[in-house]
Amino acid sequence: MRVALHTRVRPDRIDAYEAAHREVPAELTAAIRAAGVREWTIWRSGTELFHLLECEDYARLLAELEQLPVNIAWQARMGELLDVVHDYSADGAAAGLPVVWQL
Length: 103
Fold this sequence. Notes:
Elements: E1 2-9, H1 14-21, H2 26-34, E2 37-45, E3 48-55, H3 58-66, H4 69-79, E4 82-84
Antiparallel strand pairs: 1-3, 1-4, 2-3
């Protein structure tokens, strides 16, 4: 399945956000892949961040990562950089952007 998400980086933290993503912990990327993600891309336009995930089951991904210590640490780090954060709770499974048009 494909899931599109929207988050927002704080204007004064753009450089720190991009630097952090050059250093995503290998343990976290391995856990993301193990939870069924085939691809995760983030685009930035100003402070707006758009994510596209290709995964087996987005709700399963969230459930597997929600209590994982490396993800909790990563989300705390991202929480310092973002105005709109990614929701890893069960409620977050409905946070994907609705499809408006597709070719």
